[in-house]
Design a protein that fits this description.
There is one protein chain. The chain has 94 residues and is an all-alpha fold. It has one helix and no strands. It is rod-shaped and about 135 Å long.
Amino acid sequence: MSNLDETIRELKEINNHLFTINTHLEQKDSKLDECLNVIRKDLWNIKNIIANDTEHHKNIQKSIEKGIERALAKATVYLFVTGIMLYLVGKFLL
């Protein structure tokens, strides 16, 4: 019976050791899950920042395009008026 008792004692020690290992693994798994959640949140924030920057750049591009269109329209009007003035000056003064 001493062999049986000794084997049972060894199995209990092994079981305790395995339980300790399992506890450590669960703690590490929990820490990894926390790290993954932090990384997910950071990636989500980065995605939102990029989306906001993209929207901001689109707005800037639209305002630049409108400014260029206005400048071209003004230049066209100035050229037209200048052409008429030169025509009138040439017709009546020359």
